[in-house]
Design a protein that fits this description.
Length: about 525
Amino acid sequence: MKILFSILFFLSALYTQAQDYYHNEIYNLYNQVADLSTDIVVNDNSFVVFSSTSMHSEDFSFLGHIIVLREFDFDGNMIHIDSLEVPECPLYPQYADNIINTEDNGYLLAWESCDAHLFKFNVNLELEWEVQYEHVNKLYAVIENVGGYLLIGQVDDEGQGDLWIGFVDSLGNIESELVYGDEVKHDQIHWIEPTSDGGYLLSGGRYHTWNPLLVKIDSLGNVQWEQTYAEPGFQHGWGIARAYSDSTFVLLYGYAIEYDFVDPYALTELKLVLLNDTGEVITELNSSEAVEGLYVRDLKIVGEDIYCLFNQFNEPPENPNSFRESRLLKYNMNTGVVWERAYRGFSTSQDELSLMDLEVIENPENEIEFLMAGFLYDYSLTGSLLQCTWVLGADCQGYSSTPELSIQSQVSDVQNPGDLVFDNTGTQLDTLNWWFSTGESSNLQSPELTFENNGAYQVELNAPYCGDIISTVDSFVVAGIGIEEITNTKKAIVKTIDVLGRVVPENYKGQVIDIFDDGTVRKRYKSN
């Protein structure tokens, strides 16, 4: 039943400019066979990414699914791959929280598969045992509990989906269970958060409008309260809740401001709100600009920093060149939004990158870094759909490759050649500090300066980056302000430069600029 894949996978590096740690790569067992990633589990010296791929016969009959386990070191190198066949059974990975580490350094996986399966792997990624709960329709999430585990799933009674809450022992045997839900609407829970009183906060959505849903249970599974958010009548997104303190929670969800059932991609705002210990809204922390196709994926809190992972379309979905990108937003409880990063698939416009799971890790230098995993739909590689697992690493500021600065200067008004605007055409960093050889400085993204004299100048650009400073220096020439045609003059030439500001050698031929000791310049053609 268990098979080992050593080289039977498709591996392609996408961004060669990424430094050694940060890899953006796709993984696929067989070319053009769907491979869907769901979760990252971080160990002391490695991390494991779980995904699902399908099996078909030569006549394309469905044979079942395969659980694929890929282990990576923290340089992004895959060091182990293993798999488990689940014959005649479809596997549907959901969101984060459906795979966890166990006390013996193994892994417990709760996926929607046939009925509901619980899979236990040891530290070597070998299957130890599995349990099937035939009366449960789906499994969505798992978390450790005293002496065992808490499972969240769904039961389906004549089309009515309710929550299944199951407490199981260390071998997956049910010790107690209960069913809870709305009398009419479907309820789904995908995230579990332990609370300071020994209970759990369950977050997900309530169908048909998928209003964000929170359910608070005690340590025995008894429901203490529930809350829904947003407004009825629109197709809102899921809600993800995490504990901010012993008495407050943070909730992330998509808030649809309009909805058309013919076009399901509503204009949706990303909402981040602070809740009290009964789920009531204390304050709205942040609301983004409305975009189409927005879905929340994961939420992590580290101290005062909140990290929100979500997907959105970068263009209206009716645009044939539109694609879906994943985004990571950092919100600080003291300062507000700190930065937001976008992650895309290939450099084409025919893909959808959906990062599903976010893990925040601490590197050997005690700096925060990020791991994300999900899947990519792409039509551009083979002319048909390629669905593959995507693993992405990012540094403490959310960049998947080392930022680079590059300075561009240009005249902002052709009538005033002394008016120049400066831009960073490299990585778009949030904080920039400019210094000019005139003594002026600026922290604007695109500063504009007026120069009174012709001449060659220098500009330095630096930016804080993960506890360090990155910088670049460039030269530029201001010309056209009262340029003098000097034929008989006692002024001395200080320097002769080319149009890029570089000092030219004696044998240089071409357009040059002579710079005189009074700051004036002269353009001429140097023949030798």
